[in-house]
Amino acid sequence: MASPFTIESLLRPAVELYTVWVCAAAALLCVFAPWAVALTPLFGAVAATGFFGLGVIRFKQAMVVLRYRRNIRRLPHYTMTSTDIPVSNERLFIGKGFRWTQKHTQRLMDTYLPKYAEYVEPTSTYALARRIEERLEFAPFPLKLLTKVTSWNVALNPARPLPPVGGLPRLHGIEPNEADVSLPLGERVGHSLVLGTTRVGKTRLAELFITQDIRRTRRRPRRRVQMGRRVQPVHRSQRNEEMNLDREVVIVFDPKGDADLLKRMYIECKRAGRLDEFYVFHLGWPDHSARYNAVGRFGRISEVATRIAGQLSGEGNSAAFREFAWRFVNIIARALVALGRRPDYEQILKHVTNIDALFIEYAQKYFAENDPKAWQAIVELEGKIDRKNLSFAMKDRPLRVVALDMYLIQQRISDPVMEGLRSAVRYDKTYFDKIVASLLPLLEKLTTGRIAELLSPDYMDLEDPRPIFDWMQIIRKRAVVYVGLDALSDTEVAAAVGNSMFSDLVSVAGHIYKFGIDDGLPGAKAGKVAINVHADEFNELMGDEFIPMINKGGGAGMQVTAYTQTLSDIEAKIGNRAKAGQVIGNFNNLFMLRVRETATAELLTNQLPKVQVFTSTPASSANDAINGKAAFTSNTHDQIQSVSVPMIEPAHVVALPKGQCFALIEGGNLWKIRMPLPANDPDEVMPKDLQALAEEMRKGAGANNGWWQAPGYQSLGESLPDDLLDDFRKLAADEKVA
Questions:
Q1: 3-state secondary structure of 47
Q2: Do residues 404 and 366 touch, judged by C-beta distance below 8 A?
Q3: pLDDT confidence of 534, banded at 50, 70, 90?
Q4: CA atoms within 13 A on the CB side of 79
Q5: What is the rounded (10 degree) CA torsion for 571, 574, 577, 583?
Q6: Lowest-pLDDT range, 182-186, 261-265, 410-414?
Q7: H or E element that contains 619
Q8: Cβ–Cβ contacts within 10 Å for residue 608, how many?
Q9: Does 698 score more than 80 pLDDT?
Q10: Terminus-to-terminus CA distance in the chain, angstroms?
């Protein structure tokens, strides 16, 4: 409720308690000794009732002051089990908080005044207790008991330590009357950006959002199917299928591989009955990861070249090489599709380094179908070739390739795939290698070691139990996907795979935007479904392909929530300030946790208006008396002045405690929010092998033979290779040293 006064005064002694004690004493006197105040017992009871009512009113007023002073120093504990997280079909729960207005800026400014320091800063008792604990850290047992008493975390302990969240509690404590804060689901299609430095609650906020996305199910009323004059109820399995179709797609990119996040997704899928739709893709655990072909599904063949060449640098002289790389990848992809093969990274790398074999293979297929006698003529030409008479570009080519080229010149065959392959082999091999030099490192990143098994799956290997998925399949199935990119082990490969997946998602979003998700299926209808994409540390994954995803993906149902540390991370990754601004400008919802970069904090503060705050200045004056009755006259009063200040400063963002944030949502409304801390949930029953797996992921120590088996997965009975185990041990040692 708004204060009726220009300046509130909540940082003060609770003087209302004096009235409470007086009212309590008067009420007791009126009840037990009414004669002492010249009242009859009846009128004494009436007077006691009046005193009691006044005491209650003043006690409530005193509690407002006491509660405000308590919150300024220490916020009440706020925890919530995952089962208690509210799930709505209309709103996204964020936490507890309040809408920030001029009143809160006024209160915050007041806390910095020296006269209120005793109500804001830690007490001398608190400081003494911390010094005692510091000095008695290695003291013998009897003295050690003293530190146990001073650190006892109960309300009766006046020196109990503050929660280990850092920051300034006053930023949230200035509003004791907080309420649940949520975001309308209709706003999520505008995308959300979460900014915060390391270990301040980004992943916890991600778990909160992901939990709701997994469990959210939009229920439709039961339908009945009209068949002639009979009305038959929908079969139970059909109702279940319809319910499944109303679930949302959840795709989580986790570059660092957070074990708690994986556990949370597993538990929520189990609770929601979605384990059959849960896929785990993890570069660090290839034996148990699902497989994925980033270039295996496309609407147009040219998309294959775009997804691969789009990851190459397009700045300066590199732009020309990227265009050449795009052309050659497109030639290879067209030839592979014409041969009835699904393109993948291994095949493209193989034919980029040796395009002659693909040229010969396609020619064999083409002539077998269109001109069976041509091959005999080609063999005869091959026998008559003298290398001395060949052009410089063809000297190093196999004679069969030279003969094919000569035959095609004679016959003038019009086939676009053949012409493309022929133009590629006519380049000088040395020149060709220089042109594709920038493409080879990228392809080798995606095909080296066991990663090739995941990114270039063998569709014909029926004995491999690891499922193969693509994004259209995931979206049609309304599935949940966890993508662990193991960036701590190999940042380059993680970024390349992440970019490939993003590029593929953009292509799928374009297809959905035009034709709907059921295009090509019987009875297909144009439509879309909510596709929740959570990209943790997204600055490590993004490239140019991320811009169209957030710029145009909303029309296909894409709802991107991106998590990163600073604006500089985005700019450094893209290498262009204008493009970084283009990315930031497409996020309509902003969640700002504690950051250490002023420029990042100003992304929020510069969008807020200035407000008027009031200050009170005591003033006094004395004047000589005009008449002779007094020597002088004096006057004392308070002057109230208004000053225009920013609603919040970057310094306030830097001083946020862990688990708290400022949120700019719903068209620029500023909210101050704190997320619930996770509480122990006895209902979270997890397989022992998954618990062991999560522990190994935390320590980075190695693999566990007893791997948790999600539906569709099957243990291969193999441990991770020794070199990978050594890498994990080294990472664990480095983290321990750090």
A1: helix
A2: no
A3: very high
A4: 7
A5: -90
A6: 410-414
A7: strand 610-624
A8: 17
A9: no
A10: 49
CB 495 within 8 A of CB 283: no
Residue 182: what are its φ and ψ, rounded to 5°? -145, 160
The identity of residue 316, as a single letter, is: G
- The strand pairing partners of 91, in sequence order, are 184
576: helix, strand or coil:
coil
Report pLDDT for 688. Answer: 62
Q: Which two tokens stand for residue 634?
A: 């004096």
Token pair belonging to 188: 């999520």
Q: Are 318 and 438 in contact (CB under 8 A)?
A: yes
Q: In this model, does residue 112 exceed pLDDT 60? A: yes
The H or E element that residue 482 is part of is strand 480-484
Segment (H or E) for 472 = helix 471-477
CA contacts within 13 A on the Cβ side of 600: 24
Query: CA–CA separation, 214 vs 217, rounded Å?
Result: 8
Instruction: Assign 538 a pLDDT band (cuts: 50, 70, 90).
Output: confident
- pLDDT value of position 239: 46
Give the CA angle between residues 517, 521, 527 to the nearest 5°.
30
CB-CB contact of 492 with 318 (8 Å): no
Quick one: how far is CA 109 from the chain centroid?
33
Spacing of C-alpha 623 from chain mean position: 67
> What is the spatial distance between Cα 107 and Cα 90, in angstroms, rounded to a whole number?
33
Residue whose pair of structure tokens reads 């004056």 in the numeric block: 621
Q: What is the pLDDT of residue 390?
A: 84
